[in-house]
Amino acid sequence: MEITLQAVLAQVMLGLNNGVFYALLSLGLAVIFGLLNIVNFAHGALYMLGAFVALLGYSYLGPLIGMPDFQMNYWAALVVVPLVVGGLGILLERTLLRRLYKVDHLYGLLLTFGVALIIQGFFTNYFNVSGTPYDAKPEILNGVVNLGFMVFPKYRLWAIVVSLAVCFGTWFVIERTKLGAYLRAGTENPDLVRAFGINVPLMVTLTYGYGVALAAFAGVVAAPIYSVSPVMGAEMIIVVFAVVVIGGMGSIMGAIVSGLLLGMVEGLTKVVYPPASGTVIFLIMVLVLLVKPAGLFGREN
Amino acid sequence: MNRKMMKVLAGATALALAAGPALAAPTRGISDGVVKIGVLTDMSGVYSAIGGKGTLVAVEMAVADFGGKVLGKPIQVISADHQNKADIASTKAREWFDTGKVDMVTGLLNSACALAVQKIGAEKRRITMNTGAGSTDLTNKDCTPYGIHYVYDNYALANVAGSEIVRHGGKNWFFITADYAFGHSLEQNTSRFVKKLGGKVVGSVRHPLTTADFSSYLMQAQGSGAKIIGLANAGGDFTNAVKQAKEFGITQKGQQVAGMLVFDSDVKSLGLNTAQGMLYASGFYWDRDKASRDWSKRFKAKYGAMPTMDQAGAYSATMNYLKAVKAAGTDDPDAVMAKLRSMNISDFFAVHGKIRADGRMVHDMYLMEVKKPSESRGEWDIAKIIRTVPGDQAFMPLSESSCSQVRK
Predict the structure, then answer these.
(1) What gap in Å lies between CA B52 and CA B143, rounded to an integer?
(2) Is there a contact between B395 and B153 (Cβ–Cβ < 8 Å)?
(3) How far apart are CA B165 and CA B178, in angstroms?
(4) Segment B287-312 mean pLDDT
(5) In whole angstroms, what is the distance from residue A104 CA to residue A110 CA?
(6) Any CB–CB contact under 8 A between A247 and chain B?
(7) pLDDT one-digit tens code per residue, A48-98
(8) DSSP code string of B104-149
(9) Which of B48, B212, B216 comes nearest A11 by C-beta?
């Protein structure tokens, strides 16, 4: 098959579209790992939960509270859903995760994996595995934009823009502000930071909540593109872990950049040899681990 | 080996030889005191709107209409979700046959599951009446003495709808194919008719079953320059692909998306605005004649939606199975199969139906066209029959079948 520039650009654009979701999710994972030292295996399930809370708010909440016409619209969902799911994350951290900071990483991984299975099992029981459409896409984001080399749906363009904004905003806060400095210092030496009068446990709780909120946010943005399905997170989480490993565990910029790049690499693979697109990320992971075991942006300890 | 042991062995062999025919002879009456029908299909996944609970409802209706008893023994219906996984389907079928007293299994959407269960049915001497799956292997290389393919198959779909699209000028094809037994078979069958009529297949791409995002496959299809983008998939995959083709402006640019297997439930879910003008082949349409309308309305009152061909077929299959049990005076599978093969199947579902040696139930097929929104007079007035294709012209001729049951 002949490879045209148009086809390459189109697939790169779609790859970027997938890449922003990789970036949002791996960013949350990196923040959580960096500050809590927890490998949050529940991240995929929390992303799925975000999409489901948006769907429930739109299609099911009204009748439930006795107002059949009430629907939580898309814009409200973008704000409310991360708050709700982030709140659940805080609850999870306070009640369960907190007990595991002193023990091996493995325990945190097992706990969060179990939580993921419970959440996923719950939704599989009540909802269609193949996905329920989320029709709350606002009118203004309907339609297409002609990019010259392809026709691109407005909504997908919006998804790219808003996700990039959130990613780089997060990076800015953690790497360039005083609050971020406290956070980073808190992970290096919590006792010293506490001595300065800063409530480190609260900071850790809020950080976990924020990481979870990022996953939920990605879920809301993804809902109108993909159908909302109980397994949407499980399908995503493995790739996202590979992205984090490639970027370097705990590196904020590494997570964002490798998320975007790998999305595009996946897209390019679809032009050259489609069957490899599902494995190319893992192939890159193997190569990166061989050459640079700490990841592209990670520091060797 | 000593002589004594030889004697024992010889004796045992003789005994087994003597007992053999007696064991294999049909037992009269109803085994286990019950006729049990199992509905094994996709209850929750990508194909659940095609079959799912609706198939169970249809089978239960058939049992109720038959009177709930046959030859004085009760008829029971059980069901399970195979989740589109062949291993789950196999395990369930074995359990049903070994300890569940199940005499006949129907539904069986998803060709991978269908092929697995039909094979187990043959091993265990139980009848499988497939109403959901499409693969032509079911009546060719994987045919069995107890497997019936009831509603449609990929050959008939390609023959009735695929070739019609080629005749309308759709010469260049690109396939987006579900990557498992069914999709492969559908692509193969359609390609054969496209080439036979002077068309060309310029490329194809395969996607995993249950894909949410078809955008990159659609971009490849667009890049191929093919006139027709043939969707060799079904159910949720089919509707997702069609919606996204519209979203990316592919259909507006002159390429045409054609579904190789379309169920009425898909048309309903796409809406007439998106689906109008689409040609497809079907084994049943609810609004065909008075009998089909009457039955379908009864079904809708129970289930909430008009029947797909899978669901309507499951009723007809169950009803005719029970009639055959009654006529044979036993639920012995060999006797029932012999009766089923000798029957003329004519009801609200099938016209001029006949079960062939390869297990294919041959009946009239229909070339359908989705109505324009302006033509539709009611929620379920979604398509029209533009041609009726007699069964012997729609399905693969017996002479071409590679089934070992067919004597040539």
Answers:
(1) 25
(2) yes
(3) 20
(4) 96
(5) 11
(6) no
(7) 999 999 999 998 888 888 888 888 999 999 999 999 999 999 999 999 999
(8) EEEE--SHHHHHHHHHHHHHTT-EEEESS---GGGGTTT--TTEEE
(9) B216
Which value does ipTM take for this structure?
0.73
Fold annotation for A5-291: ABC transporter involved in vitamin B12 uptake, BtuC (1.10.3470)
Query: Does A268 contact chain B (CB < 8 Å)?
Result: no
Contacts of B216 in chain A (CB under 8 A): 11, 14-15, 267, 270, 277
Looking at domain B155-282, which of 3.30.160.100, 3.40.50.2300, 3.90.1150.10, 3.10.50.30 is its CATH number?
Answer: 3.40.50.2300
Look at residues A273, A299, A290, A247 and name the one whose alpha carbon lies nearest to residue A19.
A247
At position B205, the amino acid (one-letter code) is: V
| Contact state of A7 with B216 under an 8 Å Cβ cutoff | no
Q: Is the pLDDT of residue A47 over 60?
A: yes
Q: How many Cβ atoms from other residues are within 10 Å of residue B187's Cβ?
A: 25
A128–B44 C-beta distance less than 8 A = yes
B215 contacts in chain A (CB < 8 Å): 14, 17
Report chain B residues whose CB lies below 8 A from the CB of A151: 248-249, 253
Size of chain B in residues: 408
Q: What is the DSSP letter of B102?
A: -
For chain A, what are the domain ranges? Answer: 5-291
Q: How far is B216 from chain A (nearest CA, A)?
A: 6
State pLDDT tens for residues B355-381. 999 999 999 999 999 999 999 999 999
Residue A1: pLDDT over 80: no
Same fold, B33-152+287-364 and B155-282: yes
Judged by a CB distance cut-off of 8 A, whether residue A96 touches chain B is no
Global pTM? Answer: 0.80
